[in-house]
Amino acid sequence: MKWNGLPLLIFGSGGISKETYNIIKQINLHNGQQVYDFLGFVEDDISKVGNEIIDGYNVITCDNDIAEYTRYFPVIGVVIPIGNPKVKSIIYNKINNIRNIVYPNIIHPSVKFDIDNVKLGIGNILTAGVNLTCDIKIGNFNLINLNCTVGHDTELKDYNVINPLVAISGNIIIKNGCLIGTGAKILQELTVNDNSIIGSGAVVVRDVEENSTVVGVPAKLIK
Question: Does residue 221 belong to any structural domain of this protein?
């Protein structure tokens, strides 16, 4: 049997999911072959099954039926491009016991990074224009959106959502489940602790506490 690429599902069918589909399409075009065999979208609402989302691809199953759908594949890939860190982790924890599911890193061909100097876990999505320098560690299920920059000796742990045009300086630690708004800037040698939110356009000049929200220039605590 001819290999047509890794069979692949995308969880969700909103804007970020459609953008992720476009990255998959670009990866296949860039490589001149089917790296991924995209099958369709997965939703939490069974009534959405059959809805066309983009380019003739539909919602083909729902969360509760994913084990039954995937059992016919020796191996199948899943991407979770959800913009809410908590929802990303909930989805993964719901399906992580399905042994034939794998979680590829989806990396747009335009991303700039040195494979020898950037360590990636699983399930990450790096969109167009992302620039990673050196000695960077990226954990699992992070979304790094359009035209973000990540400086040297920085670590992103798990389930973080980094929105477009964010500038992360060197020697930064971003822990788990953080949401960083469009255009935010994080100055060097700081820690962004678990489940924190940085507002759009904020300039972070000190550590961000766990479960907090900061906004403004310079960023100040509001929650």
Answer: no
